[in-house]
Records
---
Amino acid sequence: MPRVPGSTLLLTIISQPKGLIGLSIVVFYACLAIFGPWLAPHDPYTQNFASILQSPSTAHWFGTDALGRDVFSRILTGAQTSLGIGVGGVLVALLIGMPIGVLAAYFGGRLDFLVMRAVDVMLSFPDIVFALAIVAILGASTQNVILAVGLVSVPVFARTARAVTLSTMAEPYIEGTVSLGASPARVVVRHILPNIAGVLLTLSSLLFASTLLTASGLGFLGLGAQPPHPEWGTMLGESRSYIRSHPYLATFPGLFLAFSALGFNLLGEALRTIYDPTSPKDFSYRKADRSAQGADVAVQPAGGAKGQHSSVETSDVSISYLVPTGVLEVVRGVSLSVEAGRTMAVVGESGSGKSTLLRAIATLLPVGRAVVSGGSIAVAGQRLDTLTPDGIRELRRRRIGVVFQDVASALNPVLTVGYQLEEAIRSGESRLSSKDIRCKAIALLRDVNISDPEWRLQMYPHQFSGGMKQRIVIAMALAQNPEVLLADEPTSALDVTIQQQILSLLREMQKARGMAMLLVTHDLGLVARYADDVAVMYAGRIVEAGTVTGVFRNPCHPYTRALRDSSPEIATRAGGRKLPAIQGEPPNIGKLPDGCAFRPRCQRYARRSICATDNPDLRPIGTQRAACHFAEEALS
Amino acid sequence: MTHRDDTDDVIVAANLEKHFPIRSGFLGRKVVASVRAVDGVSFRIRRGSCFAIVGESGSGKSTLARAVVGLIRPTGGEVLIDGESVSDKTDAQLRSMRRKVQLVLQDPLASLDPRMTVRQTLREALVVHRLRPDRAAREARIEEVVRQVGLSTVHLDRYPNALSGGQRQRVAIARAVVCEPEVLVLDEPVSALDVSVQAQIINLLMELQDRLHLTYVIITHDLSLVGYMADDVGVMYLGRFVERGPAYSVCRMPIHPYAESLLSAVAGVDPQIEKSKPLRILRGTAPSPTALPSGCTFHTRCPRARAIARTLAVDAIHDVEGEGLPKICVTTVPERRRCDPSDVEVTCHFACGDDGMVSVDSQNPEIRGRSPQ
Amino acid sequence: MIVFNRLAASLPTLLIVSLLVFWFVDFIPGDPARILAGPMATQEEVDVIRDAMGLNEPAVTRYVRFIEGIVNPDVAVSLRTGRPVATEIAERLPNTLIIAIGGLVVGLLAGTITGVICALRQGTWIDTVITVLTLAGISMPIFWLGLLCIWLFAVYLGWLPPAGAATPAHFVLPILTVASRPAAMFSRLVTASLLEVMGRDYLDTARSKGLSESSVMVRHALRNSLVAAISVAGVQFGAMLGGSVITETVFGIPGIGRLLVDAVSRADYPIIQYSILLFSFFFVLINLVTDLLTLWLDPRTRKSEGAN
């Protein structure tokens, strides 16, 4: 949804090349429409039979037409009519379509049904034919063309206004305002209209371009502005007979027409990137790609790989996102190892870098947007940075299984579950017959406790509940007998009772198959229940790591300790007692404080200078590792 | 403001029902089925107390909360706020009544209008209810409330996207309390926040409740939050309360098997306790509220019913997987009942100790590990 | 069943459309009887013709006759040529359809290919070139593009005939011209929906299976993005049919569009009515087909058959 306060809108538009060019063209045309008649060197109506159909010259920049009139002057004068029809048409469409759409969405029910039906009917006429019919009824004139092209666009406006109103009304802040006691009129005027204005502005700009083209099309057919009045479409229509001998007659009005449509299209595009969250924001990636090359240089060969291989081993790994302003380091030197047969939990809040770390280990960092900018990652003894693309594919095929957080988008919606599962099996074992593949798919679904697997294989993902989908994703991750199972918040989108089902299942599979599992989560309770080892991340670094028992019983880092203590324990109605809360909020990546990143929120800090100057290293403290200058204070 | 004593009931819901019709046919005139989002729920909330509605998605807890606030009109039963029935009111009367009952939503970024500064958001609440018409008094009130929720006046002229998650939730709370309500309905008030920020917001809510003598209705799926904040709790499953009573007893010793499994899903932070604690994992997922199961709606997932059918001599019916269930669970809707000596009302045929529940639980093989699907 | 339902749902639309088309003729200035009788006729002669045409009968009777005219060519006759409307339309329909279908095929092919290239090569020079071309494509007035093509290919280079519909070569320029807009639209749409799909986890799921990047794109990404493109293809096909009123004028092709434009300027109202009705019929048909295609390609739009 749009979140652009008005004053910065102009800046946001002209910061994009599209917006800058588009806006310049639009401003140019606006000036043309206003001042055009005064700038015209000749009278646009004066016929001069002595000089008909002359080629462009210094006297007549764009030549003269069949009646000897100066084409340049006619184009300048015609700007008012051509653009005026566009403006008028869009206004008609906006003023009729927007209220209809907003009211239909707001009141719903019968009104909505009737409006939508009417829109359906209107959309069953091709728009230029519809406009033609209206002109046929009313007669050809400039006003009637405005009305015609405006009415033609009413359904588009009504439909868009209805759709954005509906989606705005679904936003919780509308419910919040209603629950505040605000009247419907206030809700519509103060909250809905301002928030749909951006989308309608975008639509107006894009529609202006198409209205202009439709209107000039009518003019071209001789049904628009009537001679001798100059209008670009009409002028093109007149030029048709002379295209063989005098092509310049068609060139200049067409050029002006095409450029004005281009300008409004560009402006509309620029507005859309601001107001429509689904539009690709390509203008930011381009810069990102350039900085990507710079970042690649910074990759250093990491320290030598160790002889023994843990299932996952990262040493001093840094990962950076490439953003328009440069490089944002979200993981800052993380070393951890996960052994076969154990579950390691990575715990952290938003922005701690835990999911990015998991994606890097899964070899799934978004290409061109994030890079491993330091250190090395090894999975099943193979260093990722030394692998060829084929090697990486081989690794994904046989060693790594991944379970994602967003259950809804982890399965391809247009393919059956069976196809997707069998694809995974076939990719891992290409020599199996299709019958064996099917048997294996059925067995896998049984393993993840899905009943009637034969029947379920033919179903599509949307026919399953969230919990069932996650079971299918797990089955796909297990299909290739991986050594390493990577699970990124596998249950945070699921209901609590389903969470326990899924985590028990994952844990059981991990133990039964002797896999190493890396579980990323923010929930300490789940870690305590389902993991063997834990690494606590804060602002891109591990601040404490060790066995779950060790770390949770005796946290050495103040962040770990505070996190543990601030979870409300069951059945302790407070009675005035406060929860021991951590003050402040997780830091903004990119604006980290000097020294220890946790310092501004730390209760142990006590203004000691080393905390403000030196970033503490992760070092052994008792049986675990912690990154705090004063970790020993926890032991005393 | 109010002359009543502090122990009276501020909200009374009697047999509340909200069914959403599913329409079809031309112009949607034919009602083919209905979603029983809330299906006969009764409770009272004492002034100054905190009532929690617990359930998972699809349980109807959000619909119930919105019916209590008067955002949707119930299709049956009644809600009284301060003794006045919500259903008799016109839309305009309902709007002015909403001053007393305010809603705080889960996602603070989505629940604040992105085009309004904090000051405009708070001012709107006062303007809507024509409170403090004097401009200076209004600004003074806004500043007072902003300080109450732990923000400072520098935040007043910021837009929501310039605030952090915790700050936004503070603004949402400020908007709710600025027009001096009596009841706050909190819809998952902390679950969208970072773990380290949740405790701050919980503390703030507790502090405001004391200071402003507010009544809270909390909607959540998290029993640990309930145990910490609530006085009373109703556990919802498919539109009905399956267990309702004082929070200390429901959260410590739940009686209904669904409440038991919700409690068992709450994991503490002590690994040794957590790894040895028995888990009660439910089979399957909740059925669709358009097609409620017969008898006790929980029977399709109930581990206790299956355990009882295995171990006790009861008249049994077999489910699709061939497991036995006591016939009564499949055929008869359980009555609300109270198990002495506690104050807890529970809707289960095998709830109180007299029918051998305790002995069955100890032999229940599903308690640890996974549920067979 | 679903097919039947969708079919049934489009019937009321067709009914309302036919009523509107029938009704709207009453607003056209000029008396059809006077037009038929010619400028020299007396008032009595006009009245006789009025009566013979049934213009004095009640609206219901006239509407029934209008509908009858769809199946019975003898009922509806052009006011100008005196030939049955059905004959006039049948002679010209093939030309219109050849251009529209040809334009759609060329547009889809060009649009899909350039769209995929754009999505895969974000930020490179080829992306920029295609983006500029597609912007030009949606901003270019079709009739101007047509005139430029005639000048370049027919007049200047002399490769193709400038106007008419006599040989297959005559259709090359019109098809290329009308294809420009759908190609541009389609290219942008395919790019946008591919970019959106590429952010989805299921592509990472597919990658983590070890599939090659090309099979990830073809099997998982492209199919999903085509779902979104189908409805646009339908709208574009409809727009091209409508656009025939302009293209056929530019290229001097005898087709439905040209027929309609001429009929409007001559107030030949039976021709106007039936050709607009035909356009609407095609539109409803196209909507139906895109609906069914979407149903077939995207299982989510089918009614779920009770899982779990």
Note: Residues 6-42+65-275 of chain A form a domain with the MetI-like fold fold (CATH 1.10.3720.10).
---
Amino acid sequence: MKNSKNLSEPLIRLSKNDAMPPWKAWCVRAGAVVAAFIVCAFIIVILTGYNPIEVYVAMFKGSFGTSGKFWFMLQKTAILLCISLAVTPAFKMRFWNIGAEGQVLVGGLATAACMIYLDDALPTVLLIPVMIAASVLAGIIWALIPAVFKATFNTNETLFTLMMNYVAIQLVSCFVTIWEKPKGSNTVGIINAMSEIGWLPTIFGKKYLLNVIIVIGITIFMYIYLKYSKHGYEISVVGESENTAKYIGINVKKVIMRTMALSGAICGVAGLLIIAGTNHTISSNIVGGQGFTAIMVSWLAKFNPAVMVLTSFILTFLGRGASEIATTFRLNESISEILTGVILFFIIGSEFFINYKINFRTKHIEEDKK
Amino acid sequence: MITLIFGFLRQAIIQGIPLIFGSTGEILTEKSGNLNLGIPGIMYMGGISGVIGAFFYEKYGDVSNVFLCVLIPFLASLAGSALMAFIYSFLTITLRANQNVTGLALTTFGVGVGNFFGGSLSSLFGGSGGTIALNVTGNYFKTTLPFADKLGLFGSTFLSFGFLAYLAIAIALTASLILNRTRIGLNLRAVGESPATADAAGINVTLYKYLATCIGGAIAGLGGLYFVMDYIGGAWTNNGFGDRGWLAIALVIFVIWKPKFSIPGAILFGGLYIIYIYIPEFTGMALARSSQELFNMLPYVVTIIVLCLTSMRKKREQQPPMSLGLSYFREER
Amino acid sequence: MKPAVPAIELRGITKTFGKVVANKNVDLTVNRGEILSVLGENGSGKTTLMNMISGIYYPDSGEILVDGKEVSIRSPKDAFDLKIGMIHQHFKLVDIFTATENIILGLKDEKGFDVKRASAEIKETCEKYGFEIDLNKKIYEMSVSEKQTVEIVKVLYRGADILILDEPTAVLTPQETQTLFSVLRTMRDYGNAIVIITHKLHEVLELSDRVAVLRKGEHVGSVVTAQADESSLTQMMVGKKISLDIERSEPKNPTDRLVVENLNCVNREGVKVIEDISFTARAGEILGIAGVSGSGQRELLEAIAGLQKLTDGKITYINPKTGTHDNLRNKTPLQIRNLGVRLSFVPEDRLGMGLVGNMDIIDNMMLRSYQKGHSLFLQRKAPRDLAERIISELDVVTPDANTPVRRLSGGNVQKVLVGREISSAPTVLMVAYPVRGLDINSSYTIYNLLNRQKDSGTAVIFVGEDLDVLIELCDKILILCGGKISGIVDGRTATKEEIGLAMTKYSGGERE
């Protein structure tokens, strides 16, 4: 008499789980990383036939093996962390700024322009402050354009900032052809290679130390800014509920623009660090997708600047390590992107098990007993 | 001059074809409320899957069989890109992950897979290493209508493409028809606008989202296949596909989520992409190389302008699908 | 009377959301050919229960029988297959679709997809029941009552024979309500089962054949309407017989505090939502505002709080210290505060506007005070003390002050909000539906707090829905209807009938 098809409770039902303690949540994430590495091991074996343990060891050695490698790794982490910190306040406000790539790039472009055009005009002591101002300003402008439209017309910021990236890339390509050296190479070459004018100084004999110190400074600033400042509080309120923000008299438009300006400014600084502090040249792919990776760094860290130190380190390590094994085992470098992708999928997926509770069907057991 | 204009038009169409595939696929996806920023990765995957299919068939199969030579890369491409879209769907629909982050990770992954296999496929499988050249398959894909040459300018401008070009246009028109004229389209649009409403009306929201995203991904992947097989002629160059995936996403906004407009839109974008080559010929003026890059900027700039204008006009029909970017959980309170 | 044929039987239905028990062990029967009212206060679990029948939620335990067969309703589609149709309080319509497209959404086509033919068929349904509706109009161009009509036509067109309506009259004018009732009666006479969720007693008595009463998620009993009256139903709803007995002190030398003149404002669609409203709120008095929900109460309070742009009018605040008159019109909340106006506002939407759900109690305390001082940094000491004080004084049930407020129950959320708003010693206090969803004890805590504010010389404006409360609590009651004032009465002498009549005086109310 009973319609058994209709009777069965769904096999799996979901419900929200608000209350997972943080330590448990981090265990789930760690588990996801472990699982990801296991899957990656299979991928490595299938694609290359090498022993994955050896490959992982090589990855480790490749990233940390020598002091030079270690510093290179550190500086890479610093840049990625810097960009991640830049996008974080916007994300906390639920403003999906995926235009960091472009904002960094125009910051770098402004830096390079200063280095190229002002090399004779200003002494280095004055040039560097000008470069800082120019890169920050460029980043701010690039970030403010979508912010103004978002605040005034509610223009979709994800799509807008995404498009701004490619405008920036083309802009840089354009300047590369103007500045190219030697002619016909389609590259700018090392800017001021001989005079080193406009290069960020080497301190304590370590090439990238200044970069690292600046980024540590920004990290601390951002942590305090988000957690203890009134601005940071306003960002959280606007992000959580625009209605509440209006209700307590927060000028939402102003907060959106101010926060995006900050976001852009730090991106500009990142551009400065890449151009004047590291590569001393510019090309349209010099940011190398870190503007996008930064989004994942920030999101994986739940927008917490302290945790971002860790997540940016992990993602840099993956990229670096993989490109090292690529050389060691004569593989294609793109394997690092594959492995990064797989690991990201796992971490992204693991959030589900933190936010939701899965209830398996229990009813049929009772039915059997009857 | 006429020849020149038609030549330009032909090139614009060639450049536009991958964008038609990409944007049509992305429109279907976005109509279900999924903002798939993994489309660039998916298009790479579509390309490389086709390459892999062709590589093995040329190696072990009978290359004189035109039908299989085309069908196998075609199916491989569909399967590869649909698989990518499935990963995205599983993460965002079933596991309700953030769509932006998932999409970007997918792009990283897809570009990585493309460049990895593109660069080392032949060395992995006992070849000489180096770049892949699949001339036979490429030529089959490039085969045009036999009477195209005989129809003069019209024939050479509009009929001188491989079959994928016509497929792109057919798919865009079909997608338009399905979205606007059928029950499935109505349901799909409802899912993207308001999944709760669609759910209450008895529509299987999850199924629609999965299907739209996977089919959309498969269509977009064909853009990658067209690029490597027809445009390049069966070779793989790392990052050769460039930013066309993002351009396809831009096109979605430019045509305000209407697939039929993506045909002229893609040709326009394609034209803007290459107009720098033709400007000197049209005007007789030499063009600085720097302004080429500025011309390449144009598609993005016009997209931004369209995005701004539609948001300023606030016309309801021209906005992105209402629930774009949000995951749906029925028991949300 | 014919023997009752059960259409739906619920047995032991329980549903919880986290720690909140929405329904507990509910047994309920809906018969064919009858209209059943599900009566209960706000938050008594009526909607949750019905959502389980319509497939929105799945019960944690219990059984649902339709036509005597045990069924599992896993999705709205399952419900639809069982010919169950629900009209939700928040309409489930796609804004950019036309009425026809919405009505046919999700259906199976037996003869192919043909909008025109469907349109003609829908027209027939409309004519049969006497609905007037433009089927080609887009939903976003429609008024609320038009949208509701679309919802009902949708369910009817789909051939539902079990119809559930969630507070359908809240947004309707009296005439529209009568039209709806006659349709429902017709449907009942065809042998359909109809469930109407409501908390309006007169509707229950007028329309339904049987009443099921829910209280705190439990089914406390069902009665045949003919054998019930308002007081017996109220008794079931609230549990024990309570004459409210809210203490009301005499106003002590009331002075004018807030003078509102000729307020007008339009909503985003350009429809007038408040029209020529003038009144004076006096210090030391509670001014009640009564009206069917959506009569302009929200816009009125938001206009005073600086959240709504006015098209016309004047809001004058008379500063008790300096005696100066300040015009608050079109000032932002911040500007109002900077004028030295201590205006507190407990909005209707507590977690969406008054508080931030994901923030803890301390950070929520800070919402009002964080801007004080010139420091760039937050001062968490004072808000922490305030949070601790509110928790202990108002008996807020929470693990500690660091708990996100979304984890608290409705009553405790409200205590946190009201506690914060009165902590700044306001000179004007506006509260919107402050006891909605609260249990009796919490409600009384709130009434006492308001009375204390009144006694300390605050001008209190109280927007309520329960007429008994308004009459017992307020000194003066202003009645809104369709965005206009339809009466101002003295709380001590007014009768419910008088207010109820004024609430439905104009044929307005066509708005959200």
Note: Chain B has a mean pLDDT of 85.
---
Amino acid sequence: MSMPMFAAGDDPGASFPELLRRMGLQAVAPTSDASVLLTPHATTCIALRFADGVVMAGDRRATSGNLISHRSMEKLVQADAFSGVAIAGAAGPAMEMIKLFQLQLEHYEKVEGSSLSLEGKANQLSMMVRSNLPAAMQGLAVVPIFGGFDPRRNTGRLWTYDITGGRYEEHEFVSTGSGSLHAGTVIKLGHRPQITRDEAINLACRALWEAADADSATGGPDALRGIYPVVATITAQGWQRIGDDDLAERYVTIASEMRSRT
Amino acid sequence: MSMPYYVAPEQIMKDRADYARKGIARGRAMVALRYAGGIALVAENSSNTLRKVSEIYDRIAFAGVGKYNEFDQLRVAGVRAADLKGFQYSRDDVDARSLANSYAQMLGQIFTHEMKPMEVEILVAEVAHDDISDQLFHILYDGTVVDERRFSVLGGDADAITARLNESWTEGLELDACLKAAVAALAGPDRQLVADDLEVALLDRAAERRCFRRLDDDVVGAYLATSPPSAE
């Protein structure tokens, strides 16, 4: 293990990506069109605000062209104690970005001795998306959503991004990926400002159900293999992932509702 | 042409060592002790913001005594080295031994080649998954590494504190007894230290990933106030 030491005026500070650049370890963008390579793509992720925080959810399917390449990918991950990030787009760069983002938050916390503000975290992610722009231009776009609980404002907050790193805060819900139109519409119809945690989880489950129903690249609940979407809430108590048993029950309820209509 | 005076290498090394030791002895000491649930790091530190003890990685903590800016520089270098290694390989590949060796190389290099040695003593502690493989690496200003099994004492007055801990430390101490022993050893017979004078952190063996945890003054006060262990 070599010790990275820098002169006082030349120090990369608490930035891990900058440290990687200094050490010559940053990722290299492809120089020609990579979209023909049929790399796995991750699809629908959503997040919505409820009374005490935010719910985030993502389906589990990754596709390569018309084929399913992974059934149990986790596109929604915990970023740190009070935030989560979910990613749609080219799976390889997306997973790398998630890993780097998690590491950056932890690195900052350790070097500085205190956590970044929620807005600071959202901004960090924006810079990472922007630095992926050359790869995005070659077909490896990565479009995350970011949500978390802001202890300074005592509320849940959500951000959506575009491939250029544009960062937009939303007040009700955000969605990204190929099924985002369908999932977003379901949430738009069911969302109220003071929705409870339980209702918000149900709404998220329902949104992913409808996305999977209409979009071939979005995976639905897979009772056969016991694979359910990743759903988590972030409140003043921090990140809490919803267990598969709980989700299985919610999907049974949704399925029986659908059946009763026909 | 003027000739520099000849100074024997032994004398140069001795002067540097004396200089470093004097700097270190000016500051307050700290101790790290193994207890039943992990490793406790207890430093005498009246500041609540300038830390002597901090997190390096999932199971690794850092502690430094002596000149603050120097050991803080070492701390940040350690965080960087550990995060880079975990990023390049796996989180499981980051270990205290290799980190301690890097620190030792660096301190040894600075001690012999720079104008001034670093006036620091540092500790790299790693809590293992089982209770027999915990590691405490105590690294001196000249790059000497000492691998300690039970507890580690850094800073001025280390001999007296070690002697006191030899009396009070036993294998498998509970946290409250361990903190009391540490605080009594740091304070000595003539002083009384309260929670506000201390900086306490744990490497908690049972934690899921990041084992490092600070204890705030209220919690430390509560541990120190519980009824004394039967040994006393």
Note: Chain B has six helices and ten strands.
---
Amino acid sequence: MMTTRLCALLIAALLAGCASTGNPKDPLEPLNRKVFAFNDALDTYALQPVAKGYVAATPLPVRSGIGNFFSNLDDVWTGINNLLQGKVGRAGSDVGRLLINSTVGIFGLFDVASELGLEKHDEDLGQTLGVWGVGPGPYLVLPLLGSTTLRDTANFASTYVDPVPRIERVATRNTLRAVKLVDTRAQLLNAGRALDEAAIDKYAFMRDFYLKRRQSQIFDGRPPREEDDEAALPVPFQQTPQRAADLFMAQPVETAALQTDE
Amino acid sequence: MSKILATLVFAFGFVLPALAQEAPDALVRNLSNEMSETVRSDKAIQSGDVKRMIEVVETRILKHFDFTRMTGLAVGREWRNASAEQKTALTAEFRTLLVRSYANALGQYKNQTIEVKPLKAKPEDTEVVVRSEIRQPGSKPITLDYDMGKSSEGWRVFDVAVAGVSLVTNYRETFSQEIKAGGIDGLIKTLRDKNQQSAAKLAEAGKK
């Protein structure tokens, strides 16, 4: 149901995007900007006040518990994706996390596994596709759902794995969904104000951040340096050519080394 | 008396250069601890006084940042075509913008803990990445990585990556758009306008 609607939206978006404006990563910019403005208004007048109320009304331990609960459900999906990416050790650790937190952690309310040294990972299907070599495709801003790319819309497939949509009782299901949304927004409250101060063009800032963040997630936090980082350096800071080459070459190798020792 | 003085002078002569060449991870750790301490204990900051926060950032932190290099990285290729005056103006405006954003962000975190990971660097390294993590109860931890370069005045930060994204290069796309539209002077003007707007808002908030 949800996916059908999304597909229709995507097709509409792609058709509208024929009027391109220049940024190759964002051919649908004019449309995206409109949706962004809509989402932003909705956030300011609805979601943000609710999230603030939620923070004010719930004591911190309760909020931690709720955050942990959803984070525990996410570990199912994280584990599957680690497996798909061939990171078997990590997938095993994710299963361990799930087992420990669902039992000792009382349905995931407490993140006991992290205390025990089983690190939380961050994986999804979009990242898996990225690891497999699929490019991001055009950047998209979806109504309500926000920033994504054509590749990352694959993440909506996780609805088939996420236990929440499988709950039969509609009221329970919708409550859980709403709480998750509010909880996620509440975690981002601090970031919002700093963003307003930092961004010259909020849309572009968030788009570039999203795209770079996905790149970083695909490389598990250590993406290779961008091509012109070194070229862009002010002249006095430019290193010998050999050093510049080091920077390009050393990074991925180091990444590989770091991934194995956990 | 003079003996004590001599010891003091000796100690200072010894300790100060050592401080200046403090290991990069130790530097980040000390600064982080100092800042969390300040945020927690300063009444004005607790009540959301951004001006005070900016003051603290200006006096304690800025000397450890290399803003010229940061601005150069953010501007990208066009940096080479900028005149010396343009570079100075750009650096000043970008610096103001970053300081204000940082002060704003810092004031928001009240019960966070910062863990700076030990650095595995060789003594001959001139560039390192110090990794740290901000933990806030009820939220996911955020990684904060500092790119640092060695200089005669000790290690200085030239880029900060939040959640794996370089804050400095995140400006590059916007900056190159601005430069395309109005040249380097256009970018300087945009930054200046943004800073003046924020300063006016801050003054307004201060009156209340």
Note: The mean pLDDT of chain A is 79.
